[in-house]
User: Fold this.
Amino acid sequence: MRLSLLSDLNAERAARRAAILVTDIASGEQRLVREAEIAGDPLADELRDRLRQGRSGLVEQEGRQLFLTVQAPPVRLAVIGAVHISQALAPMARAVDFDVTIVDPRTAFATPERFPDAPVLAEWPDTVLPEMGLDRYTALVALTHDPKIDDPALAAALRSECFYVGALGSRKTHERRVQRLTESGFTEADLARIHAPIGLDIGAVSPAEIAVSILAEIVATLRKERRRSA
Amino acid sequence: MLSTDAEILKNAEAWRREGRGVAVATVVETWGSAPRPVGSHLVIDGDTNFLGSVSGGCVEGAVITEALDVIADGKPRMLEFGVADETAWQVGLSCGGRIKIYVERVD
Assistant:
């Protein structure tokens, strides 16, 4: 592999753009196909398919064996609320290779001292989320318990392609949330995307245990095609 | 430190820029139960420092040895590992799977 190719691959990942490295196994010949270049590639259909599934693998083309290294952008986690659960969640999410950003307009909560592992934005979600660009590699969790902060974040997530949307709160809290979001124009299908009560049911009690259940649910959603059927 | 996919390839680039010999090993095919999915990387330098994994630790030693040859002569190699056989000298996978690994030098 040429160093320049490896460097391009790393640059695409850093810019949150998908890319596929095509390697001719017999000759060692290689080329990089960026997401925007897929349509013009001879392997366009195969590349599009692979990228959608996020699956690397071998393909045959005119008797040649090609290996496709599919590099999807890293998963990003937008955490709304610089709360106690978020303090436990941020380092765990980093450990599974997620890009974590904490958003909370309350400056007493949103301090770098409370979050040494992740960038903290002391802003309203509706101000910063559009700039972040919520894409299909993004998960959003609303953890403030405060509708003034959580609702606009959930609205932004439901208008985006986020693969996971979760909201903290009891069933009752969620019923009221659904009512508010319905009044602002979201459909039943939109609202069904919200995981609430948030997290897998593992009987979590402490903030750290709740963080485990949330992270496990995000991974389970990300990897749903690989899960053993119940 | 735990290395993630992003860090593995970033390190491969950084190591090469420091002037070290570097090889990248990639899982290209698996059969049966295999510990690491297709596309997983292991990067190796000329002093046998390594990051990442291509199995659960079962065949890394053998891949590193082959990687040193790849770093030396620049020819990519395809390695294949099957079920561990205690009576043979070959290393293998105790989980019963088979894997194919492509090893190439960073030039």
